[in-house]
Amino acid sequence: MGAPALSVVIRKLLIDALKPREIPITELSKAICSAKGVKEVDIVVTEVDAKTETVKITIIGQNIDFDEVAKIIAENSVAIRSIDQVVVYRTRRAV
Amino acid sequence: MGAPALSVVIRKLLIDALKPREIPITELSKAICSAKGVKEVDIVVTEVDAKTETVKITIIGQNIDFDEVAKIIAENSVAIRSIDQVVVYRTRRAV
Amino acid sequence: MGAPALSVVIRKLLIDALKPREIPITELSKAICSAKGVKEVDIVVTEVDAKTETVKITIIGQNIDFDEVAKIIAENSVAIRSIDQVVVYRTRRAV
Amino acid sequence: MGAPALSVVIRKLLIDALKPREIPITELSKAICSAKGVKEVDIVVTEVDAKTETVKITIIGQNIDFDEVAKIIAENSVAIRSIDQVVVYRTRRAV
Amino acid sequence: MGAPALSVVIRKLLIDALKPREIPITELSKAICSAKGVKEVDIVVTEVDAKTETVKITIIGQNIDFDEVAKIIAENSVAIRSIDQVVVYRTRRAV
Amino acid sequence: MGAPALSVVIRKLLIDALKPREIPITELSKAICSAKGVKEVDIVVTEVDAKTETVKITIIGQNIDFDEVAKIIAENSVAIRSIDQVVVYRTRRAV
Amino acid sequence: MGAPALSVVIRKLLIDALKPREIPITELSKAICSAKGVKEVDIVVTEVDAKTETVKITIIGQNIDFDEVAKIIAENSVAIRSIDQVVVYRTRRAV
Question: Which residues of B64-86 are buried (b: 16+ CB within 10 A; e: fewer)?
Answer without folding.
Answer: bbbeebbebbeeeebeeeebbbb
